[in-house]
Amino acid sequence: MATETLSYSQLGDRFNWPEAARILVRRLRLPRQKANDGKVLLSVDRSDPSLKARIEELEALLTKAETSAAGHRADFERERERCDRLTLELMRGAIETMNAKEAAARLEGELTALRSRPWWRRLVA
């Protein structure tokens, strides 16, 4: 049984992902011990096929998660564009409503002015 003693950073360097070391050590419950300099050393069995299988499994899960994230990103972009279009339509509708209210107020003022004159004067004009 070939056992190797590594620090977290050394184990992380082997995966090209430093954060993976702590996660992997916690999940696999690898034995740990504190060195004289305060660093934590891990005992890793180099010939352990389950560790290699677990690494491959985690890499496959990571690939699957990245694929799923890309799909969710596309959905997000599509919904954001849809939201932008709806916001534009809402703003146009608000402008049209304000214009219609202004026209209605103007016409209401003209109608009030016409009604305030006597009926015989309205016939002449």
Description:
The chain contains 4 helices and 3 strands; from the N terminus they run E-H-H-E-E-H-H. It is mainly alpha-helical and 125 residues long. It has a domain at 3-69: Orthogonal Bundle (Multidrug-efflux Transporter Regulator, Chain: A, Domain 2), CATH 1.10.1660. The chain has a 3-stranded antiparallel sheet with strand order 1-3-2. Strand 2 and strand 3 form a beta hairpin. It is rod-shaped. It starts with a strand and ends with a helix.
Distance between the termini: 113 Å
Number of helices: 4
The radius of gyration computed from the alpha-carbon positions, rounded to a whole number of angstroms, is: 37 Å
3D shape: rod-shaped
- The oligomeric status of these chains comes to single chain
Low-confidence stretches: none
CATH class bucket of the domain at 3-69: Mainly Alpha
List keywords for this structure.
4 helices; mainly alpha; Multidrug-efflux Transporter Regulator, Chain: A, Domain 2; 11% strand; 125 residues; rod-shaped
Summarize the SSE layout with pairings.
Blueprint: E1 3-7, H1 8-15, H2 18-28, E2 32-34, E3 40-45, H3 49-116, H4 119-124
Antiparallel strand pairs: 1-3, 2-3
Helix pairs in contact: 1-2
